[in-house]
């Protein structure tokens, strides 16, 4: 018998009688009164900042200014001007100062933002850059994780991630330190 | 055989100040958990849902495992099955050897700790670099993690500073966590970029899509995996959940229960390898099917490893994770470990006051304290209780069954405590006094008091 067969037959032998799958009434859960305000509060609580801009032009301006100041910027948001190809080699990406990536939507209850592989160009980009900017339109918000999972198909692409704030750790005496291995700052740019 | 929990706890308690600090630090984490939980009016509903989903899953586990395997394989992931720790280690070793690699990176995985993967690979000449900051600290110190979420919670910043001075060349006497973390960041970024193979744990594996979710705050799992040519995810069979929508329930509970955060910084969903990458999943039994067959202990397999039961436990907080001498410490570990090796871990179900706080905070509603009590009975029946405990319990049962004898014993005890209190403070005669103060003995028993006052 292979390991697989042995494990599965031991499960069959030892499992309890069937218990039905519960019916989960996600609609019964209260939603925040003001989704944008709640989202902003939680992005700040998890160590990020929220920047409101009136229109896409502001994003283009910001990316252009940073590029002309000689910073290594990778822009993946069409509204920010030229969309850059992302190098494959992590050793090159390590020097990225700031990456601009389009988030699919934000989650009010925890400040997390869903980011898909296609938006990143390279899966490592949102982790290896020194600062990360995630771009959302103000309509791209949901109340909670139940709505979040109802809005996505998790296996649509090979990889997707909820990002809530910059990389952090409290492994030394529970002191919060921002910038463990990943970005030292997360900015959420909301186009109003 | 390992020294018992009581012996190891005694050593931990030798430094009273540090014990107090450990206790307060974990209680602070528990309070953060409370604050985060109380924000959600639906908290109790979420716990019930999580518990029900897990109960259902365990009762159909074979079906969901097969579904997961089929979907994962279709996604281009190689699925391996491991009966036990030795199998698990051999499968991983083979993947590494086939690539001719001598160095790998690994993010946090309690399963690999349970299987002692690091020791095994190191003996085969493969260097394993733990990339979670807390795990890297304890790895430098050649210690196991003392907590499943906060691996270095037993250490002070001075300890970390000394360790980093030795291994990373940081400044002597610089205890600043920011400075020390930055030093680890520079050190580990170099390892990430060079890494060709990365191992991660699995928080949740979704049967309907064949993918899995890994949660971290540091981003170390992702840094390792996205740099490497090969990704190996290691999971126990109980990590399966049926559907993607169930992730909504578990991701809401996990970080709030663990650290009081509304969610971990990164909740990564892996389904297919990136172009040119290889992805493997190792599905491990290692005693879990046996636990599934133990009706009284089955639902310990619902555990999502948040460690809320550790942080609230008065015994864990004042004895430290190493006193449990196993990979998973704390109340839940004391239920899981006797299943792995009853004799070696017969002391653990006794390392509890049975106060029930663990059960109250458990996000998947495991009846932890009841199972600890049940394990004590099993262990006693198997004859694995220490003789001192066995005979004193027998004596106690004898006295408790005889009310008049009980009254005499009580009155004698109060007399000794009042009049010969020096005897009570001889630690060899009264081990209870070792890490505790003795209360003042009352003049009369509750029974006498009640008889006098019941008319009032």
Secondary-structure topology with pairs:
The complex is a heterodimer of chains A (192) and B (456).
Chain A: H1 3-14, H2 35-45, E1 49-53, H3 56-68, E2 73-75, H4 90-93, E3 98-102, E4 105-107, E5 113-116, H5 117-120, H6 125-128, E6 131-137, E7 141-142, H7 145-151, E8 159-163, E9 168-169, E10 177-178, E11 185-191
Parallel strand pairs in A: 1-11, 2-3, 3-6, 4-7, 6-11
Antiparallel strand pairs in A: 4-5, 5-8, 9-10
Chain B: H1 5-13, H2 16-38, H3 43-59, H4 61-74, E1 78-82, H5 85-98, E2 103-106, H6 110-114, H7 117-123, E3 127-130, H8 133-140, H9 157-168, H10 177-194, E4 197-200, E5 204-206, E6 211-216, H11 220-227, E7 230-236, E8 240-241, H12 245-258, E9 266-270, E10 278-284, H13 288-293, H14 308-312, H15 314-319, H16 330-340, H17 357-361, H18 368-381, H19 387-400, H20 403-419, H21 421-424, H22 446-453
Parallel strand pairs in B: 1-10, 2-3, 2-4, 4-7, 5-8, 7-10
Antiparallel strand pairs in B: 5-6, 6-9
Helix pairs in contact in B: 2-12, 3-12, 9-10, 16-18
